[in-house]
Design goal:
alpha+beta; two-stranded antiparallel ribbon; 4 helices; about 40% helix; elongated
């Protein structure tokens, strides 16, 4: 298989992939410049803890209860506003507005490279949390 990478670049990429799999490092994007950023695993976790340390831990049962509540509200709002009733699409719109996955959206961090952080600062790198709605 042909590659546009030299042998040393290919070896470097494989080394990085191995370190990511072993949870030694995390490679992520930066916030503003969209460059790559390489952090030690514990630096990434510490940076994320700044945003999540006061979050409530939710069990799977609680997610199911909350999802049922949201779906019930969605059902009643569809009925109140008659969504899709003019075209006979009530069922289709109902299916599109009902969540069945019980999946919690993942959170990831974008490192703020414009803030001038250095490892010698002794603090976690500044970051922006992003909650993704795309799962699966």
């Amino acid at each position: 298989m042909d590659s546009n990478l030299s042998r040393s670049e290919l070896a470097g990429m494989k080394s990085l992939q191995k370190r990511v799999l072993n949870k030694e490092i995390i490679i992520t994007e930066t916030d503003k410049s969209r460059r790559f950023c390489v952090l030690k695993y514990d630096q990434y976790l510490a940076s994320g803890m700044k945003h999540t340390k006061n979050d409530m831990i939710v069990t799977c049962e609680q997610v199911k209860v909350l999802q049922k509540c949201v779906n019930d509200h969605s059902k009643w709002l569809r009925r109140i506003f008659g969504l899709g009733s003019c075209w006979g699409h009530e069922e289709r719109i109902g299916n599109n507005m009902t969540d069945k996955g019980e999946v919690v959206a993942p959170l990831y961090l974008l490192v703020k490279d414009h803030k001038g952080w250095s490892v010698s600062d002794g603090s976690p790198p500044p970051s922006r949390p992003v909650c993704s709605g795309n799962v699966g």
